[in-house]
Amino acid sequence: xxxxxxxxxxxxxxxxxxxxxxxxxxxxxxxxxxxxxxxxxxxxxxxxxxxxxxxxxxxxxxxxxxxxxxxxxxxxxxxxxxxxxxxxxxxxxxxxxxxxxxxxxxxxxxxxxxxxxxxxxxxxxxxxxxxxxxxxxxxxxxxxxxxxxxxxxxxxxxxxxxxxxxxxxxxxxxxxxxxxxxxxxxxxxxxxxxxxxxxxxxxxxxxxxxxxxxxxxxxxxxxxxxxxxxxxxxxxxxxxxxxxxxxxxxxxxxxxxxxxxxxxxxxxxxxxxxxxxxxxxxxxxxxxxxxxxxxxxxxxxxxxxxxxxxxxxxxxxxxxxxxxxxxxxxxxxxxxx
Amino acid sequence: xxxxxxxxxxxxxxxxxxxxxxxxxxxxxxxxxxxxxxxxxxxxxxxxxxxxxxxxxxxxxxxxxxxxxxxxxxxxxxxxxxxxxxxxxxxxxxxxxxxxxxxxxxxxxxxxxxxxxxxxxxxxxxxxxxxxxxxxxxxxxxxxxxxxxxxxxxxxxxxxxxxxxxxxxxxxxxxxxxxxxxxxxxxxxxxxxxxxxxxxxxxxxxxxxxxxxxxxxxxxxxxxxxxxxxxxxxxxxxxxxxxxxxxxxxxxxxxxxxxxxxxxxxxxxxxxxxxxxxxxxxxxxxxxxxxxxxxxxxxxxxxxxxxxxxxxxxxxxxxxxxxxxxxxxxxxxxxxxxxxxxxxxxxxxxxxxxxxxxxxxxxxxxxxxxxxxxxxxxxxxxxxxxxxxxxxxxxxxxxxxxxxxxxxxx
Lengths: 337, 410
Description:
The structure holds two protein chains of two kinds. By secondary structure, chain A is an all-alpha fold. Chain A has 14 helices and two strands; from the N terminus they run H-H-H-H-H-H-E-E-H-H-H-H-H-H-H-H. Chain B folds into two domains: 30-151 and 288-354, Response regulator (Rossmann fold, 3-Layer(aba) Sandwich), CATH 3.40.50; 154-281 and 365-387, Rossmann fold (3-Layer(aba) Sandwich), CATH 3.40.50. Chain B starts with a helix and ends in a 10-residue tail after the last helix. Chain A binds chain B through residues 48, 50-51, 54, 147, 153-157, 159-160, 168, 173, 175, 248-250, 252, 254-255, 294, and chain B through 5, 79, 83-87, 89-90, 93-94, 97-98, 110-111, 114-115, 118-119, 122, 177-180, 205, 207-208.
């Protein structure tokens, strides 16, 4: 543990409160947040908005996943079930029942949370690789349910989902209006994760990650905390999935397939595990690569695989993780040993 | 509030209509280039069925048209949608929004075709489907700007299904690809069987591009049906046939019916395995001198003899360019009107007409695959059994389920 960065993942920082260096970083962080937010507000003027919306959806998905892996240390191999499940629920609610878009997205996320409750309830009884395997197995069961259920229309998926009018006023079929709706959902989800991580609840989660036995001996009922975090992560992943279904007006098996669970792990690790911003950066990177490589004729999966290997070999903390470490070195000299 | 909304929407749509109409009159060709997109499966189970060869066919059509239309260059883009409706609609959206593509064609895989045609209707763009089969495209989900060229599930049910029922196949079991194409092929063939006094004993659905067909084949075998109808396509059909051979399905007295089978699959499977199969296609290279000459040219470009999807794509691109020429613009409504109006007369279709729901009607043919001993050389695969007149092969508009009255609102 001697090389652990003295950032958010430092157990003392998490448990005891913010050390002095952290305050300065938080100041820097909020300045950065304002700049990023301003950038996102004007971005659709320069970049194709649908592409940005895709990045935002995946960034939120990865952020939700990171809540579990980065802050509780639970590696779920089944997050596609929440993402894709919510996409189906939202699409069905919007298309067949004529739900208002925000309500449809919330309905989808709530559905994902229910799936999360069931999967989480069963999975948290095991640890480590067994936990991962149980989530994988259960999410595959979810996949086959969606494959066979009549309302998902098999390989066709739910097509031509109407975007509808937000609270009856804003016509989301306009791309820019849709973009700001997606941005709103993203900011809400992102802020929710940030709030959870920095709450007393979040600190307990991090304590569980660092040493579960000690957390138990301190009197915390860890399985409740774990289940809580699992359901919250499923809900926010559901927000992302439901929003994606509205953006692309389609919900298909791609979103529930196990590859999607793998993709989100990749995004999180590339960006930086256990950092607030990392998953979003990773999602942006992966989606951008997929987009530009698809047109270039290069084999997408091979290139992304190579980048992943490089990341594991050279900067194990991910892009943002390494950046934070560099900032700390500059600010405080070498991290404490 | 509601009234205000309705009024503002009307006003807004009037403004939008005005702004949309204005450039169409001022400017003949948007972006000074006519851009056609070929979107199909280039790496998956339908890669031989359509694939890169369809792109070659489109390129030939553009070259044969002269490379320019109304004095503007014609550009071709293509992409691999991997048989995923979500990937396809992302690509289509970006083609329309960023790359100013005017029309998308080919669209193998019904799930993809339905998604892209739906999106294109919303965006006011033309699609001409050649690779997908579902009659939904010109049925309930029809579009004023959507056209369906080479074949459809109804033509297959009437052609192949009809031939088998006549030959005494009165009890059926279906092995169905689990998406729009499979459903409509199963339903229409089943209806045809029932209308002729036959019986459908059951069906089982398999996911697209499955590798293991054994459990499905066993279910078909235990059904006891005389005919096992394969409502799937491409490599899936080839793999079903192989699995059926391993389980001795034909030896045990059942007949395999490949409901969608083209020259590409016969070539892939070989005559030994494919001999005797009845199939319906709209074109065969050895039918006439004109066809033979075209197939010769095509083989130089694509290294294979074309099936109806490839020649259909050639015809679709050519007809689209003729329509642009006749309309004097590439504006969607004007071109769509010409596409509905002009007769189709090229190497692919003779006296083809386009119905109000976008269905192109022309004669189809029933073929039987030759035994290896009867084949005089490579690609000599078919005996022509019958002609299925266009009026029989395709549903008339009033039975298609397409609400053409709704087109007026667009």
